[in-house]
Amino acid sequence: MPLKDESRNIELASPRASINNDVFGEIPAEGPNYRDIGWMGTFVLMLKTQVGLGVLSIPYAFDKLGLIPGILCLLGVALIATWGQRIVGVFKRNHADVYSIVDTGEKIGGRPGRELMGFAFMLYWICVAASGMSGISTALNAITLHGACTAIFVALAAFFAFAIGSIRTLGNISWLAWIGGLSIFAALFTLTVAVGLQGRPTEAPKIGPYVSNYKLIGNPTFYEGMAAINSLVFAYSGTPAFFAIISEMRDPRQYKKAMLTCQCTMTGIYLVVGIVVYYYCGTYVSSPALGSAGPLLKRICYGLALPGLMVSTCLLIHYPSKYIFVRALRDSQHLVSNSTIHWITWLSCTFGVTIVGYVIASTVPNFGSLVSLVGALLATLMSFQPMGAMWLHDNWNRRERGIQWRIGVSWSVFVIVIGTYIMIAGSYTAIVSIIDSYTSVSGTNPWSCADKSNSVDLD
């Protein structure tokens, strides 16, 4: 270990040598360093990619499912997601030229698999980026007491996301992820303490004694249950980004350590926030949960969370943009140089993704319903089924077919089946919700100036 640290110090003190990489090719010393993330940077990028608005819907999911089934479902989703993220590391080790989950689609299904996964990958990240812009506008509405038109706040969110998301390497973004992570944790800690001290959630009746009516076992309808599970899946749906992250690590062998640290940390956070907030608020919990602590503390919590929401949105712009960029310039010298073509291509990718996300965030009424649909339809397609297929692809023809192989096959098939069920059933319930939102008089108009901080469900 001392020799490794010493060599790292020498590397920092001297000009960077060129790097050979299966994805980016020969990376010259004067070009962008696409292999500069340490394991701690990897950990915080993974954490910030996943911990965002999704955590704020967990108390509401517990309300629908009940505390005990909610915890069990969360742990089940966490188990499947963690296994899938481990498979990402194993598949990347076996296929060093893979940069994104789209490449795995090509490995498994040829060109049709690549194009299908490419379409799903782009649609998923752009819609989630749009939800990030919508989340930032909601935070600004809450902080400023609707100090400006919501459409202006969405435009500001898009501008910031483009500016920071255009940083070329994840290594240079990782320090922002630290700021974003600390920001969202501060907001969650403040919320958790506040609901425990104030004694009465915002949505509870204002008169008479208040006793939390939390439920250990819920009795949800099919729609409510699937919507709650959609929220839990969405909270763990950062897996597709892990291919890009491991591709830019200095030492990919440390991926597993970073991933397990991330999953244990975020699952602990999800459990503490979900249990404490729901225990004190009961059925009066707000969604997003930041609204449960009262008007003043809601503004404080959103103020603390705002940097975290901004960093999340920047990452969500960066991932699909980098995929287009690498695909367009792969095997070209412009991919790793500082040429004019390099910069024009890169900024065109980030600008195009930002514009599409901005249009979606501004035009879709009741955006939470659309995010629920995208989460159900694409989050599972990105995070569940491909991981089972990747294990089967690499292990199906293995000569030794003992009990370990049978368990692996059974588990992989189970992940594919359960992911497909959640995708179909969750999509159905989300579509019903979208239809209801269009027929509701409270639907949001495109480019609306209305204050959404008190009415939008941001799953």
Automatic annotation (TrEMBL):
Protein name: Putative amino acid transporter
Source superkingdom: Eukaryota
Principal subcellular localisation of the protein: membrane
One of the record's GO cellular component terms: membrane
Domain Amino acid transporter transmembrane as annotated: residue spans: 37-431
Subcellular location: Membrane
Record key words, sorted: Membrane, Transmembrane, Transmembrane helix
Bilayer disposition of the protein: Multi-pass membrane protein
Transmembrane regions: 37-60, 66-84, 116-136, 142-163, 175-197, 225-246, 258-280, 300-319, 340-361, 367-392, 413-435
Alphabetical list of Pfam families matching this protein: Aa_trans
Stated family: Belongs to the amino acid/polyamine transporter 2 family.
GO MF annotation terms: L-amino acid transmembrane transporter activity
PANTHER family (UniProt xref): AMINO ACID TRANSPORTER, AMINO ACID TRANSPORTER (EUROFUNG)
